Amino acid sequence: GGGHSIGIPIAVSCDWTYMVPSATMTIHPIRLTGMIIGVPQTFEYLEQMQARVVNFIVKHSKIGEEDLKEMMFAQGNLSRDIGTNIVGEEAIGTGLVDSIGGVSEAILKLNELMTMKNQ
Length: 119
Fold this sequence. Notes:
Helices cover 47% and strands 13% of the residues. By secondary structure, it is of the alpha/beta class. A 3-stranded mixed beta sheet has the order 1-3-4. Strands 2-5 form a two-stranded parallel ribbon. 15% of the residues are buried.
């Protein structure tokens, strides 16, 4: 499966993040569909929302702000859009994901974290 849009902030909000090797993460700026009021205040509000998302991801993962923004606003990586797709092991290298694994690895890590917390 894939982690897209708000899926990345949800993933990094955990104590430990796993990703199966074939999963993808799509890193892109905030998008809107439909009509918006084209005034400076609207664009300022969008920039504020984008800053909150970026700050949250940076605070809750090991990725740097500049690296995240570079992937977020990269052109030519997604067809007809901007952003970056990363797969499996790439996510560890970015600092967005802690480990590659499946359910069995996640259960082992959960038990480890619970043991550490109870000590």
